[in-house]
Amino acid sequence: MLWKTRLALLLFYCGGSCSWAREDRQQQQKNSASTGAPARADTHRAHAAEVLDFGYVPSVVYETHAYYEPGPIGLLFHMVHALLYAVQPNPFPKDLIVKLLQQNMGGIKPEELQKPENVVLTLQAIYYEIGFIVLAVLGFLFLILMPLVGFFFCMCRCCENCGGEMHQRHRKNADCQRGFYTASLIASSIFITAGVLVAYTANHNITTQIKSTRRLVSTNIRDLKSFANYTPAQIDYLTAQYTTAKNKVLSDLDNIGPLLGGRIHNQLEKEVVPALDNALRMTGVKVESAIKAMRETKEALENVSTSLETLQDGTGKLQRSLQAERSSLSNTLNDPACSNGDVAHTCSTIRGTLSQLAISANFNGLPDVSPQLANLETVMKTDLSYIVQKGYSAFNDTPLMVREQTKGVVSRVKALLDKSGAEIIGFTKMFPVEPALENFTKFLSDGQKNIEAYYPQIDQLDFYRWIGCVVVCCMVVLILAFNILGLMCGSCGYDKNATPTTRGCMSNTGGNLLMAGVGFSFIFSWVLMGIVVTSFVAGGNTEKLVCEPLANRQLFKVIDTPFLVHPAKKNFLPGLLFQDPNLDLTLGSLYRDCYENNGIYAALKLENKFNFVKFINATAYNPELASILERVNVDLQGVTLLEQEGKDNLINFANTGLGEINYPGYLTEVNKGVTVVDLLSFANELEAQADNLPRGALGNALKGHASSIRQIHKEQVLPMEQAMSSLSQSITLLQTTSRELPTKVTNVLSAIDAAEYLIANNASQVVKQETGKYVRNLVSYFRQYTNWAQNSLMLEVAQCKPISNIIDSLEIIGCSFIIDSVNTFWFGLGGCCLFLIPSIIMSVKLAKFYRRMDTEDVFDDYPSYDTMTRYPRASAPPRQPDW
């Protein structure tokens, strides 16, 4: 019971609860199934928790390789298995064995044998064993009859019957008979030789494999020691990895600003940033270009003011220049030369165009834009860009705000995690694991010493067994020796020309040796058959009822049958280990899990007894921690996107008076030309008319006036045209801005108010949602740890391969090493016994041809008789002086 106590204590240290983990996994699957696929994909992309790397549990490599390859002798094993299958082809009688065990568990009483159900079970058992029963009966008959037959055969020969008469009748086919008997005896001897070799090989194989058991015992014990020695380190590694999850949680808590605040900022950004962009969107430009729009408006107003001043000054100067040029040209046309016939018409035509030398647009009556420019300069003294950037900064500082507001929560969570880590480590230190494992290792060492102390006795007993089997084989070898010597002496000493009474000494010795072999066959055959029947019944049934079902695991089904041991105890293994027979733990499941090298935690279903994982989960993520994390709250009431000063600035910008400018008046004057007529055209026409006049002072004077007009156009008209073009562009820009500005400013202010209302009143849902995701990520780290701990407990911690190796080693030693060899031994020895019968018959028959007879058949030669009517008569051999 001491080993069971130590084993239970060791398993307690490895215990946990995988049932809780399975339920949790099923619940997660249900929750994930109820969520839409797009939502899952989006959440995974945006807020997927980092996968933690907990490393690998320190592993142990076990030495035992529970596998046996018999080698060449395996062919004999297969032959024996085939014979046993022919003898017993029925499948393993699981139900029959269970019923027999259940009915006879309390002991068999004689009066209960007559019950119908027991009779039926007996008949079923006989039917299953019918092959063994028939062969055992035949062997028993052989065992009984061979000595009797040998006795009566001996008595019969002593009375000169049964071939005992030293007289051989003459037959024509004597040589053919002798050859047949010789060949038959040789064939029988060959089969007997093969049988004895098989028996000796099996006998020697047992001795060889018993020595191999020491290696299996040694490696299995070393594996158990490794199992015990590595388990504490594996448990320490398992609990130490809580630090990995804890450090990750602490890291996320230290970075709660960028993580949680950043997520809140990113979600609100989808609605707040468009509002901020709209706040500075003017004339189609983006938010960041708002100040540029104000500067362009100011530049446009300045251009209007400058251009208007330039045009007003230029208009007066141009008017004076044109008036002077018109007066001078009029005086020239009053020259007496213009009174001549053809010249008078040209001068009259030119005089009619003098009124065209006048200005067309009058800019003196247009109002000044100085008030609007002054208002805009006042508005631009306020740095709207800085005010808007302050709004951006207030919103972008959400992570910092979150960190400051959750500082108290973070400190409390850190303290609680430190406490939980100490509790987990303290839990593993509560129990004396190392002393218990030291005791377990010492128990294994003492057990190994005790086993090794029996090795000399085992070797001695095996030596006696080997000697006994060799003696049995020597019985057969002795018979074979007489047969072989008899054949050799008889065949070598046989003389065809010698009569039965004159046969030589060697031939006679061969016949005597053959009869000696017959005698020893009768003496030893029943002993040999007794050994064969005993080992056949024992070894054959062990192979069919133990080894084969153990190899295909059918035997576990019998052992694991519910209520087999006791009507009130469902399973015997958990009742033996945990005093809880109702626990769903079977030897078959234990072997299966250990064969796959799973942990002892999963193999022994320790989740039903020791809830280690549940303890870790409850400690790592307890209700207090959940309560603290659920109280995480972020208040964004202090976020102001645009201060009142910025709003007033936008309103003032809209009220700078751009709409009061007389845009039609400006555009009307701008669309007029600077002069009534194009001065260049007028000058060219004037010069052309002067060329048509006769050469003289008048023509030259007119060309001089044309040159003066060109000079006025170049120096005064062209600058005014440029000023008018600039004025037209600026007025158009201001007119467009004045129409759209009030509406845009109103929309911007409305969007800002809506964004601030969104942050102040509707952000709680975003905060709650993102906080929930953040908390779930923190929880997922603990979930990863508990899942990893559960999987490690089930698969990597305290891997129980040594337990299945022990069962497999017992199967190899008991079945492959011993039972297969025992079965092979009786297989070879049984063949010898069977072929002893034809060997006896052939030896008796053949000895008649080799032994020297006392009398023989003599024929009288009468001429009147032919060979068909001659009658033999007995005659003694002639006397020889040297006999």
Architecture overview:
- The structure is a single chain.
- The chain has helices at 2-13, 18-33, 37-47, 74-87, 94-104, 116-128, 130-158, 174-240, 242-254, 256-279, 290-333, 341-352, 370-380, 384-396, 398-405, 407-429, 433-453, 455-493, 505-551, 554-559, 572-578, 587-595, 600-603, 612-620, 623-630, 644-654, 663-671, 679-692, 697-795, 801-850, and strands at 167-168, 855-858, 873-875.
- The protein is mostly helical and 883 residues long.
- The protein has a three-stranded mixed beta sheet, with no helix packed on it.
- Helix 7 (130-158) packs antiparallel against helix 19 and helix 10 packs antiparallel against helix 29 (697-795).
- The longest helix is centred in the last third of the chain and has 99 residues, at 697-795.
- The model is unreliable at 1-46, 282-289 and 859-883 (pLDDT under 50).
What's the arrangement of secondary structure elements?
Blueprint: H1 2-13, H2 18-33, H3 37-47, H4 74-87, H5 94-104, H6 116-128, H7 130-158, E1 167-168, H8 174-240, H9 242-254, H10 256-279, H11 290-333, H12 341-352, H13 370-380, H14 384-396, H15 398-405, H16 407-429, H17 433-453, H18 455-493, H19 505-551, H20 554-559, H21 572-578, H22 587-595, H23 600-603, H24 612-620, H25 623-630, H26 644-654, H27 663-671, H28 679-692, H29 697-795, H30 801-850, E2 855-858, E3 873-875
